[in-house]
Write a structure and sequence with these properties.
Layout (H helix, E strand, L loop, with lengths): L2 H6 L3 H19 L4 H7 L2 H12 L9 H33 L4 H12 L10 H18 L3 H8 L1
């Protein structure tokens, strides 16, 4: 059978799960705090991380400087570019409100750098990057699949 045909097959339950998770994220962002919303927020983001782990293609990846550089280029550079663009409207608002200060700018840049809040919600990109680097580091230390699974949980 053609390899491209196999690679293009979708897994229905994964697509349905992601669709439901997207709807739950939307619900969590547009509804007021309530017991259902609090309950939903306990699992809708972890669902995406579990699906990502499930779909992770095990391959012989050499955990090297070159690999880290490539992953940084793919994940962290877009994160910081989007973050810098997202801060611009806040700078304009702070300027017109008269609240623009060096402390506010440094705080926002720091929050963006560590993936903690800031004026935008792309925190999952540095989380994904860190999780994948930790996984590959653990994999390099010990190639026992059960051991790696236990440590990553």
């Amino acid at each position: 059978m053609n390899h491209n045909l196999l690679a293009s097959k979708r897994i229905t339950w994964v697509d349905v799960t992601k669709g439901i998770a997207v709807l739950l994220v939307m619900w969590g962002h547009v509804t007021k705090i309530g017991l259902i919303t609090i309950w939903i927020k306990t699992f809708y983001v972890p669902v995406f991380f579990v699906i990502t782990g499930f779909l992770y293609k095990e391959r012989e990846t050499v955990f090297s400087f070159e690999f880290v550089k490539n992953q940084s280029r793919k994940v962290l550079i877009p994160y910081f570019v989007c973050g810098m663009i997202a801060i611009i409207p806040n700078i304009v608002i702070w300027y017109y409100q008269g609240t623009l200060s060096a402390k506010l700018m440094i705080t926002s840049l720091f929050q963006m750098a560590v993936g903690f809040g800031g004026p935008f919600a792309l925190w999952f990109l540095p989380s994904y990057y860190l999780a994948s680097m930790l996984y590959l580091g653990i994999k390099r230390l010990n190639n026992n699949r059960i051991y790696r699974s236990f440590l990553c949980c």
